[in-house]
Amino acid sequence: MQKLKYERPLIKKMNAGPMSKFGNSACMQPVTQIDGVPVKSLIAQFGSPVFVLSEKQIRRTYRTAARAFKTRYPKVQFAWSYKTNYLNAVCQVFHQEGSWAEVVSGFEYYKALGNGVPGNHIIFNGPNKKREDVLLAIENDSLIHIDHFDELYNLLAICNTINKKPRVAIRVNMDIGVYPVWDRFGFNYENGQAWNAITKIVESGKMQLEGLHCHIGTFMLSASAYGIAAAKLCDLAQRCKTQLYNPIQYLDLGGGFPSANTLKGAYLPSADTIPSVDDFAEVITTTILGYDFKQDELPLLILETGRALIDDAGYLLGSVVANKRLNDGRQGIIMDFGVNSLFTSFWYDHKISPAQECSQHTENMVVYGPLCMNIDVIRESINLPLLNPGDHVVVHKVGAYNLTQWMQFITMRPAVVLIDEQGQPHQIRQPETLEYLEMMEQVPAHLQQKVQV
Ligand SMILES: *Cc1c(COP(=O)(O)O)cnc(C)c1O
């Protein structure tokens, strides 16, 4: 019989106690299945770790957001922010729901075309658009959002070589009472730069100024900030009409609504503190409706919501590698996924749940990833029951940005699975392999001879 390893005893405060407003922290609800599919079978079929997305949840969240805006304003259009999650299967769910595409790079632009999005339903943002991509976007009647004066001058130069008026908007940055202001993108409202750019575009007669755009930040906790942003865009739009006789067709309020994740260092769980999508919709739509646009000139309201639409549909399933008692007495637990796959653990305290029945006794733990790096910490401090090597866990609300910002570092990127509305799992991205990795490498001839070392 194997001898049990000695573990020194530890005296700790019990976490048991009455239910508080935030639930009983000692009560551990295991998450054994996702949309009816057992975690165990997902890991058996697709490996560990594995990202799992719920199509049902994506559609539910999207419809809730769309309803919040469409019940308050007659002309609303969402455009899926590709960089938030550009797996084609995910983009297609949003496109099926009626979303346009919002892209910030040439390859995302091509992805949107490949997903069948018509050119005139693609919004092209970002400070670094390549000339050939811009030419294609013009040809396809896409909406080009100009970021800075050099881009404006480049576009004007392109206009002299073609027989077509590009459809454009400018990105506007502004003081919305939340600091620091994101002033590195777009033209400033307060100092007159935005108005200056608008005037240049309209007076050139070479482009069609159709919209005004802003993206005031990300994970914005203030709904009123969007009221200020909408008001400033409306002010520019009205001046465009009265002073330049150029009515504005659409106002694009960008993204930035928070998801229900808890930011690191936050005192309360996010779900209890963030404004709802209804709060944002109410502020934005009442502000626009408060301006005296004629009924038939009411601008289309575009939203480029990213993380708030996909975060809660994403799960990372993983396994315990080992337990480790730290010198300071705390329990450390090593998982088979690290910060390389879970990029958002740098700013969120992600919820982690055991995936099987477990003890109700919890202990404060540090959750480590498997990388040989000190920074590979998923949670600095979390109450979990003791888990055994091989046990599974579920990390919640990881659908946004992880599948675009993940790194192939020490470990390969894992598989991604989408569970459809009927509860059927589909692998939508294979786990990476050494072969895939080395496909991009080239060894010069003089280094190809293998030597004995
Ligand atoms: C990233 C980005 C978005 C999406 O932002 P979220 O904070 O995820 O909603 C929208 N618009 C632009 C221009 C972006 O860069």
Automatic annotation (TrEMBL):
Molecular-function annotations in GO: diaminopimelate decarboxylase activity
Required cofactor names: pyridoxal 5'-phosphate
Residues covered by the Orn/DAP/Arg decarboxylase 2 C-terminal domain: 310-399
Domain Orn/DAP/Arg decarboxylase 2 N-terminal: 64-309
Lineage top rank: taxon: Bacteria
Keywords, ordered alphabetically: Pyridoxal phosphate
GO biological process: lysine biosynthetic process via diaminopimelate
Pfam families: Orn_Arg_deC_N, Orn_DAP_Arg_deC
Keyword Cell membrane: no
InterPro entries: Ala_racemase/Decarboxylase_C, De-COase2_C, De-COase2_N, PLP-binding_barrel
PANTHER family: DIAMINOPIMELATE DECARBOXYLASE, GROUP IV DECARBOXYLASE
Stated name of the protein: Diaminopimelate decarboxylase
Native organism: Mucilaginibacter robiniae
Lineage: Bacteria, Pseudomonadati, Bacteroidota, Sphingobacteriia, Sphingobacteriales
